[in-house]
């Protein structure tokens, strides 16, 4: 591992963070492609930020993660990217910032609201005629899967061998009926 990579990894995993005056904690709300992300300030405003190449293939960021960014650069009005990511926060970093009271209260409230939202209870009931697709009407059909016909019958499910035997018997009966008609 090169010295630069080792330095970035050690800094992100083993460092205690202290915010400087020109830095802010933000939440990643969208990945824009490449090394550009859309981040949200605690007050709700959003801005585009760039992830430096030093983090490439070392640290990853996804929606909902938190990061520390530099202060917005007002001088570059032609570019939509206004700031750069200084540090990608891990769970341990977030806990440390909460303890040191540097964590924005707005993000704390968002996390509590997300945890308090009740999840839909799972009901183990048989689907009704209105809900034959199991509530997946919004999803399209997967063209990579074979389409199986569904036969509803009052009879109990039969094994494959029994079904084959019944089909053979039906074919034999049809052949016998045809022979009788021919005679």
Which consecutive residue ranges, at least 5 long each, have pLDDT under 50? none
User: What's the tally of helices?
Assistant: 4
Rg measurement, Å: 30 Å
CATH second-level architecture of the domain at 3-115: Beta Barrel
> What's the order of the H and E elements?
HEEEEEHHH
Beta strand %:
15-25%
CATH superfamily of the domain at 3-115: Nucleic acid-binding proteins
Quote the CATH topology of the domain at 3-115.
OB fold (Dihydrolipoamide Acetyltransferase, E2P)
CATH class of the domain at 3-115 reads Mainly Beta
Largest sheet: 5 strands, mixed, barrel
Spatial gap, N to C terminus:
89 Å
* Strands, total number: 5
State the share of residues found in helices, binned by percent. 25-40%
InterPro entries: EIF1AD, NA-bd_OB-fold, RNA-binding_domain_S1_IF1, TIF_eIF-1A
Family: Belongs to the EIF1AD family.
Domain S1-like: 28-90
GO molecular function, one term: translation initiation factor activity
